[in-house]
Known about the structure:
Blueprint: H1 2-26, E1 29-36, E2 39-46, E3 56-61, H2 72-81, E4 87-91, H3 113-127, E5 133-139, H4 141-152, E6 160-167, H5 178-189, H6 191-202, H7 206-217, H8 223-232, H9 235-251, H10 257-262, E7 267-271, H11 280-289, E8 294-297, H12 311-323
Parallel strand pairs: 3-4, 3-5, 5-6, 6-7, 7-8
Antiparallel strand pairs: 1-2, 2-4
Amino acid sequence: MSAAFQLLEIMKNYNSSMASRAAVACGAVTKHSLMLSGRPTEVLCVGQGLQEAPQHLVLFIPGNPGVASYYKRTMEHLYSLMGGSHSVWAVSHAGHCVNLPSLWPGNQHIYNLEEQIQHKITFLETHIPAGTKLTLVGHSIGCKIILRLLQHFENHPSISITQSYLLFPTIERMKVSPNGVKLWPVLKYLRWFVVMLVCVVCILPGKILDALLRLYFGSSTYECCVDATKELLNPRVVQNMLWMARDELEKVVDLDVDVLRRHRDKVVLYYGASDAWCPVQYWEGVREQVPGVRAELCDRGTPHAFVLRYAEPIAEKVAHWMGS
Length: 324
């Protein structure tokens, strides 16, 4: 009987190992839910996963909302373009995922920007194997988080950040940006009203919700982004998203000039030509304040929310930078 159980366990481990190898070979995305220092977190992996030790790793730090699934198409395309030489991961923001604690009182914590930064520091310290050559890709507020990661891990004995790509970077003056001016009254006074609306939406039948989302986004939006929006439409996730957004507008003011100067040889900033979160004058300003920094202006009309329809061009841009 004992031998039979041992045989079953060996077969189970073998099948699990084979499934993992198959996922790596075909570039399939695997999803992992975990509690990171008590903070609900989701990680997507293409290539080698959390239980392995990739030699080369690209890690996406999302914008807000920080639902990792929005980046699935970008991750898959980048992995393919790199020929599988780099594993590609994305880590959600704390609380921006559906593996949340219950809605009962006592489990109501929401996370501000500083806590999200500490969350990413903890993730790197606990889940990035020593010796891994790490490339960071940030989007929107994820770029601000990356600047803090570069500062925190300077001269770190085991974590080596080789390159960082900051896409549509909201790293300064968010509150006075065109979008910041529009959204501040909502974020300051109407957050709970938005959460109540989401509570109403959540009770809609699944087919009706699917139809409404596809009508809203249009046929050209990636399916993974429609699915990610379903994850987002959770009152607790929206509560976290709105609180973080308000904190961003209050806290993201001055450009981290010193950090950019120290790391300008391994940082690329990519600005949109018509981005209402980081307008062209911000691109001009960073080049003036940090001479020699590589700051590019998009000439393809790519919007701030590139994940919805422009994942492939952005993945191609990142792959080009990595290969140059």
